[in-house]
Backbone:
């Protein structure tokens, strides 16, 4: 589920970085104020634990395939949502840096998709009410499954929204959703079972390690405020997606307002269409994605006819130039390497 | 990657902050191109190639890491030719649809961004990288978390590997079933918690106060500033103009 930089636009990547960065700073402040003394090494070790656990597969009964743990919910149950978010963020950062699993610009998106939803939505709003005070047994297992599924579905939906809003992939929203959501629901069930199994065992063997809910008992107002912010953000991102997807709409507007039949009744319709157009154009001062879209889409219709004729020359020059610049880059690279070898090969 | 970070090459000697900023700018420039950009992206390959060359980084190992991360992006990108069939380019006898062009663009973006990120980390090392992040404004608690995670990752992964191998041997070579997996992970977790406790006591005994200090203060040298300036200028040029196309036109038409 880790997003790569290849599918992302600077606007989406930058915004999600801002959101995740803000969340990291907020959680870091909360964690620093915590009374739990050994939290710092605990977070480090638990991060390593979840990282390692993610590398272990188990067989999924009845399917013959194998799956692995995500970890967001387990972390939240062990150290509370703020520390869990930081730990998840650190795991994703190390995965992006050292294993190229997820892009650097997309790291903000990944941290939000895989950290925010389990820690701040699935845990307080689904797990805690469902599980009561229990951490082992059937009730806790059901709560874990529902919470894990919800968290993964929200994360998967986040991936779809962010990818569509970036405009690099052509996959239509509906089909993307149909592909992502069922798979992640299934993964969520398995993750919930694994979470319940692990937490249940730990709760029976070492009950004091399960986070006392005191550290994770937010004032109801604060949770609502956080939810409102999240909703506004998701709405904002959703409306980006809505307005950068006007391929058919803008074309239709262009056709409609340019067509002669509408000249006479233009009053009401024209005003409404203009207002609509204003709404769709309002968002993207946000950046390249919007600018690129409006470059390629409205002109796409007009220049479609012109494309094949113009591009023949452009593409040949482009190919030749690409090959040439790549050759130059490789040559420079070889020269640099030779230079570096000579400089560091100094005799003692 | 850990070993690569400890090499001593001109790349490793560059200030870590400068490398981080240059790489982030690089990634931003690559992804800011519109979805049909192909030849425009190629000149930017100079940056990761130069990093790998100057840092004497092993190309094949990095390529393997990059390929291991490829599946999701490639899978999503592979839908593009399916959905976007407008003809877009004519090269000799072949006509390429817009979908194929955007798919190639996605592949290029992936290659460029992933190799740049890997080159950054392999050419800097975790400790210098975290010191740079702290100085660039990342919250200290988070950087401490990164360093601790990095430190214990190898230890616990090794332990997990041993436990997993034992479980697989008992399960006859297949992946263990869910219940066995659950108790295996729970054992790993309990051992990790004990280890965390020991680590905590050891750190307190050595005077840990919540901050990890870096041994050498980072200082900017003229070559660091020069490197950053040169990179930013190059990225700006590659973003504003299509350098490949200009070069190609020079050859094909005799004028840029």
Residues:
């Amino acid at each position: 589920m880790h997003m790569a930089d290849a599918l992302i636009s600077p606007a989406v990547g930058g915004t999600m970085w801002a959101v995740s960065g803000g969340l990291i700073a907020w959680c870091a402040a909360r964690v620093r104020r915590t009374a739990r003394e050994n939290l710092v090494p605990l977070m480090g070790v638990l991060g390593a634990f979840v990282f390692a656990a993610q590398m272990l597969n188990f067989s999924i009964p009845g399917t013959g395939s194998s799956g692995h743990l995500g970890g967001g919910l387990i972390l939240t149950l062990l150290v509370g949502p703020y520390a869990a978010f930081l730990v998840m963020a650190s795991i994703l950062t190390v995965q992006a840096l050292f294993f190229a699993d997820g892009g650097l610009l997309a790291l903000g998106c990944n941290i939000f998709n895989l950290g925010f939803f389990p820690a701040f939505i699935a845990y307080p709003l689904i797990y805690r009410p469902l599980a009561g005070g229990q951490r082992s047994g059937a009730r806790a297992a059901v709560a874990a499954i529902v919470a894990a599924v919800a968290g993964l579905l929200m994360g998967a939906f986040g991936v779809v929204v962010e990818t569509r809003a970036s405009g690099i992939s052509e996959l239509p929203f509906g089909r993307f959703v149909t592909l992502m959501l069922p798979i992640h629901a299934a993964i969520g069930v398995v993750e919930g079972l694994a979470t319940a199994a692990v937490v249940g065992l730990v709760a029976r063997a070492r009950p004091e390690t399960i986070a006392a809910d005191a550290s994770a008992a937010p004032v109801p107002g604060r949770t609502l405020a956080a939810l409102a912010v999240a909703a506004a953000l998701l709405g904002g991102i959703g409306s980006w997606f809505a307005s950068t997807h006007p391929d058919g709409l803008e074309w239709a507007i262009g056709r409609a307002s340019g067509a002669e039949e509408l000249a006479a009744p233009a009053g009401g319709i024209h005003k409404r269409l203009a207002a609509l157009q204003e709404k769709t154009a309002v968002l993207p001062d946000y950046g390249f994605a919007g600018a690129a879209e409006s470059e390629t889409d409205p002109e796409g219709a007009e220049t479609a006819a012109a494309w094949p004729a113009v591009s023949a020359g452009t593409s040949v020059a482009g190919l030749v130039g690409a090959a040439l610049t790549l050759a130059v880059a490789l040559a420079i690279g070889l020269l640099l390497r030779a230079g570096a070898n000579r400089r560091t090969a100094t005799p003692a | 990657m850990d070993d690569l970070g400890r090499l001593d090459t001109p790349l490793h000697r560059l200030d870590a902050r400068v490398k981080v900023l240059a790489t982030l700018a690089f990634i931003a420039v690559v992804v800011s191109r519109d979805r049909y950009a192909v030849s425009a992206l190629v000149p930017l390959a100079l940056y990761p190639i130069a990093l790998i060359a100057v840092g004497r980084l092993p190309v094949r190992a990095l390529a393997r890491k990059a390929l291991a991360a490829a599946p999701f992006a490639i899978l999503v990108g592979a839908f593009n030719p399916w959905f976007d069939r407008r003809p877009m380019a004519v090269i000799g006898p072949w006509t390429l649809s817009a979908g194929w062009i955007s798919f190639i663009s996605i592949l290029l973006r992936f290659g460029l961004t992933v190799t740049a990120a890997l080159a950054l980390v392999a050419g800097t090392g975790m400790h210098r990288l975290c010191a740079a992040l702290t100085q660039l404004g990342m919250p200290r608690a988070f950087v401490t978390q990164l360093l601790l995670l990095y430190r214990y990752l190898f230890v616990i992964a090794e332990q997990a590997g041993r436990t997993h191998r034992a479980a697989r041997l008992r399960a006859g070579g297949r992946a263990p079933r869910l219940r066995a997996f659950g108790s295996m992970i729970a054992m790993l977790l309990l051992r990790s918690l004990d280890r965390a406790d020991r680590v905590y006591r050891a750190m307190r005994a050595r005077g840990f106060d919540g901050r990890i200090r870096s041994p050498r203060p980072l200082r900017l040298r003229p070559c660091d500033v020069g490197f950053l300036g040169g990179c930013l200028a190059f990225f700006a040029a590659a973003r504003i103009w299509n350098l490949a196309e200009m070069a190609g036109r020079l050859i094909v038409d005799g004028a840029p």
